[in-house]
């Protein structure tokens, strides 16, 4: 049977249909997106200028910030512009690209957070072998793995949706193209596709969440053998990581660990992992981390009190 595709554009319902609420959201989310860009760029700049790349933790933190910028940029600018637009439309191709981007960068972020947990595990539980285990080659391979896994995951999601026929309704009750809301518009039975999508996304979200919880439990248990100072430093770093993991994975698991259904709360839950988490990551990692704060101080002192003679 040939695929019938009469739909060339999709229409978003957006976050709200109330113009006053939309104006407030426009101001709030424009501010949030500015913080995402500035905060994450500042971390990337600090890691580069402060020469922190030699430390695996900052090597991965740099790429986490880069992924956060890309991830939020797939949905936030369009959503912010649409808040003041009369008609909130996106082309069929644009919708598929957005769906790919959300899952590509979202899944890559999940794997980077998992790799960062592994890095903390090695640093705290095997400190004498840390630099041998987490050498530059291993770090590069782990990073490449996160991007490859993210790409495979998102290609599967898009391939499942692209082969569906869209011939009737084209209104999406969301502010970006995600799998479950788009599946509702297909004019064919999407039960099997829905199950595969849930298995694909749900396994990654829940599987990584469980691995992370086990990793941090092992780390926290092993901290009992550490000195008071070592325990305090490790708890500070791990506390930041655990906060990010809970804020990101809670909404993600709620969204993708369920059958092909949509709830009215989905849009607000999605705001958490597409905007709130990328905004909080730089704040959490810098405020809880003395090394990053010191590197930032040095960076700004250099810039503010820079001697043009090079002294």
Automatic annotation (TrEMBL):
Q: Protein name, please?
A: Olfactory receptor
Q: Which residues form the G-protein coupled receptors family 1 profile domain?
A: 39-285
Gene symbol of the encoding locus: LOC101650053
What family classification does the UniProt entry report for this protein?
Belongs to the G-protein coupled receptor 1 family.
At the top level, the lineage of the source is Eukaryota
Q: Which UniProt keywords apply?
A: Cell membrane, G-protein coupled receptor, Membrane, Olfaction, Receptor, Sensory transduction, Transducer, Transmembrane, Transmembrane helix
Bilayer-crossing regions: 20-45, 57-76, 96-118, 139-160, 204-223, 235-256, 268-287
Q: Does the keyword Electron transport apply?
A: no
Location (main, coarse)? membrane
Where is the signal peptide, in residue numbers?
none
> Top-down, what is the taxonomic lineage of the species of origin?
Eukaryota, Metazoa, Chordata, Craniata, Vertebrata
Asked if Cell membrane is a keyword of the record, the answer is: yes
Q: PANTHER family, from UniProt?
A: OLFACTORY RECEPTOR
By its UniProt entry, which InterPro entries does this protein fall under?
Answer: GPCR_Rhodpsn, GPCR_Rhodpsn_7TM, Olfact_rcpt, Olfactory_Receptors
What PROSITE patterns does this protein's entry cite? G_PROTEIN_RECEP_F1_1, G_PROTEIN_RECEP_F1_2
Gene3D superfamilies noted in UniProt: Rhodopsin 7-helix transmembrane proteins (1.20.1070.10)
List the membrane topology term(s). Answer: Multi-pass membrane protein
Q: Where in the cell is it found?
A: Cell membrane; Membrane
């Amino acid at each position: 049977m040939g695929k019938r595709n009469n739909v060339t554009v999709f229409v978003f319902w957006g976050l709200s249909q109330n113009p006053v609420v939309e104006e407030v959201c426009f101001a709030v989310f424009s501010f949030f997106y500015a913080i995402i860009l500035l905060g994450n760029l500042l971390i990337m700049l600090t890691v580069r200028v402060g020469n922190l790349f030699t430390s695996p933790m900052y090597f991965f933190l740099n790429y986490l910030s880069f992924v956060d910028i890309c991830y939020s940029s797939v949905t936030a600018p369009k959503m912010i512009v649409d808040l003041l637009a009369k008609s909130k439309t996106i082309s069929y191709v644009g919708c598929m690209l957005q769906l790919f981007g959300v899952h590509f960068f979202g899944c890559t972020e999940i794997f980077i957070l998992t790799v960062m947990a592994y890095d903390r595990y090695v640093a705290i539980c095997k400190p004498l072998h840390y630099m041998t285990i987490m050498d530059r080659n291993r770090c590069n391979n782990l990073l490449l793995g996160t991007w490859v896994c993210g790409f495979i995951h998102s290609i599967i999601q898009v391939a499942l949706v692209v082969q569906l026929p869209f011939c009737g309704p084209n209104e999406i009750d969301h502010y970006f193209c995600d799998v479950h809301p788009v599946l509702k518009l297909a004019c064919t039975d999407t039960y099997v596709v829905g199950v595969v999508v849930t298995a694909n996304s749900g396994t990654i979200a829940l599987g990584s969440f469980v691995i992370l919880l086990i990793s941090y439990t092992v780390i926290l248990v092993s901290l009992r053998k550490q000195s008071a100072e070592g325990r305090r430093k490790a708890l500070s770093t791990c506390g930041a990581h655990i906060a990010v993991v809970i804020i990101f994975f809670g909404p993600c698991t709620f969204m993708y660990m369920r059958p092909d259904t949509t709830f009215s709360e989905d849009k607000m839950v999605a705001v958490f992992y597409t905007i709130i988490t990328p905004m909080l990551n730089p704040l959490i990692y810098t405020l809880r981390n003395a090394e990053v704060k010191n590197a930032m101080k040095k960076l700004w002192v250099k810039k503010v009190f820079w001697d043009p003679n090079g002294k």
